[in-house]
From TrEMBL:
UniProt protein name: Citrate synthase
GO cellular component, one term: cytoplasm
Pfam families, alphabetized: Citrate_synt
GO molecular function: citrate synthase activity
InterPro entries: Citrate_synth-like_lrg_a-sub, Citrate_synth-like_sm_a-sub, Citrate_synthase, Citrate_synthase_AS, Citrate_synthase_bac-typ, Citrate_synthase_sf, Citrate_synthase_typ-I
A biological process from GO: tricarboxylic acid cycle
Active-site residues (renumbered): H270, D328
Pathway(s) of this molecule: Carbohydrate metabolism; tricarboxylic acid cycle; isocitrate from oxaloacetate: step 1/2
UniProt gene name: gltA
Reaction equations catalysed: oxaloacetate + acetyl-CoA + H2O = citrate + CoA + H(+)
Species, as recorded: Hyphococcus flavus
Length: 393
């Protein structure tokens, strides 16, 4: 899987940009972060190290990793006044609505890192964004369940800190289960970047106008929210619950193949992968690890998911359309087992994808030939014509 790649000319002719960050071979089911296969990084690395790799292009030395980790840790707190934004939302607001609003507001608090022409300010903004996403996400969760916010701690790793901010309560101490935080860390690595997907392209287009990085990330969060994109993990779990039992799988397979039925198998298919999404394989393994650690391996929805996958992979329609499970197919079951409600699943996706959004935004801003994005169109409207007064229409 390593070595020189030859791009498919057809693909490059529609390419929106050049990038050194992530490589996908959709036909072969290959995903590389800065040349490293995703399954190796998920197996052997961790969030902070992979974040450093995506931002800087190389795996860090021990000293580089320590300094990067310290910088991120020092930015995990948020301005005390930022809390006021949460109180403006109804308690039943979707956490993604809160994320779009609060992240968009960050530029109003951190004026010293919004000048994108200053490399130092860009670096601080990048570290601030990656560091504060878990705190903001955990606060969105706590707000939605009516519990007090929990502050970040400097003695916990990135993912354990996030889990504690979500699940600790003042009444008693919270011990993070290392097996579970390691599985979530792996899940974050899988979600960090994915080339020019809809939300990353949104961040790039917003950033190409010179908008500040916090506003660009808020635009990415808004795009990721859609059920065809980042919202698919929540939609996939809801679908598995609607199916409910392996006996009902054929009924849903039939619906997925019916062109007159808008139903799609959530967590299946991909615009680029026409083979198995390499992340889905790692996701399925992480799912089993979490359910085993929690002693719920016989979780009914896992049986439904595995049987649905088995049937779909043998079905000639799905084989012909090259539809395979994608990253979202097993993530919902896993995230719910970890204790997160379904409306937090896309928030976790956004938390991890912030690393890729920031890496791609930085790459674009640092490109000396970068210009404002201006997609063109094919005009199919009315031919030129003259105005007519209203009494002649
Ligand atoms: C993510 O871009 C990225 O990289 C995204 C992402 C990332 O990391 O950023 O990977 C994250 O968004 C993963 C995808 C999550 N979405 C879902 O799981 C929702 C369910 N999937 C479908 O909505 C769909 O597969 C899409 C939106 C993901 C892709 O749709 P496309 O571009 O139409 O796929 P396609 O052109 O390859 O479809 C081929 C055919 C089509 O039928 P025909 O027009 O040829 O008759 O297969 C059909 C599609 O209608 N099809 C499906 C299907 N997905 C595609 N039929 C049933 N069930 C499905 N899930």
């Amino acid at each position: 899987q390593t070595g020189a790649f030859t791009f498919d000319p057809g693909y490059t002719s529609t390419a929106s940009c050049e990038s050194k960050i992530t490589y996908i071979d959709g036909d072969e089911g290959v995903l590389l972060y800065r040349g490293y296969p995703i399954d190796q990084l998920a197996e052997h690395s961790n969030f902070i190290e992979v974040a450093y790799l995506l931002l800087n292009g190389e795996l860090p030395t021990k000293d580089e990793k320590t300094r990067f980790d310290h910088s991120i840790t020092m930015h995990t707190m948020v301005h005390e006044q930022l809390k006021n934004f949460y109180n403006g939302f109804r308690r039943d607001a979707h956490p993604m609505a809160i994320m779009v609003g609060v992240v968009g507001a960050l530029s109003a608090f951190y004026h010293d890192s919004t000048d994108i022409t200053d490399p130092k300010q860009r670096l601080v903004a990048s570290h601030r964004m990656i560091a504060k996403m878990p705190t903001i996400a955990a606060m969105a969760y706590k707000y939605s369940i009516g519990q007090a916010f929990v502050f970040p701690r400097n003695d916990l790793d990135y993912t354990s800190n996030f889990m504690r901010m979500c699940f600790a309560v003042q009444a008693e101490e919270f011990e993070v289960n290392p097996v579970l935080s390691s599985a979530l860390d792996k899940i974050f690595i899988l979600h960090m970047d994915h080339e020019q997907n809809a939300s990353t392209s949104t961040v790039r287009l917003a950033g190409s106008s010179g908008a500040n990085p916090f506003a660009c990330i808020a635009a990415g969060i808004a795009s990721l929210w859609g059920p065809a994109h980042g919202g698919a993990n929540e939609a996939a779990l809801n679908m598995l619950e609607e199916i409910g039992d392996v006996e009902r799988i054929p009924e849903f397979i039939k619906r997925a193949k019916d062109k007159n039925d808008p139903f799609r198998l959530m967590g299946f298919g991909h615009r680029v992968y026409k083979n198995y999404d390499p992340r889905a394989k790692v996701m399925r393994k992480a799912c089993h690890e979490v359910l085993d650690a929690l002693g719920v391996r016989n979780e009914p929805l896992l049986q439904v998911a595995m049987e649905l996958e088995r049937i779909a992979l043998e079905d000639e329609y799905f084989v012909e359309k090259k539809l395979y499970p994608n990253i979202d197919f097993y993530s919902g079951i896993t995230l719910r087992a970890l204790g997160f409600p379904t409306d937090m699943f896309t928030v976790l996706f956004a938390l991890a994808r912030t690393v890729g959004w920031i890496a791609q935004w930085s790459e674009m801003i640092e490109d000396p030939n970068q210009k404002i994005g201006r997609p063109r169109q094919i005009y199919t409207g009315a031919p030129a014509r003259n105005y007519t007064a209203i009494d002649q229409r």
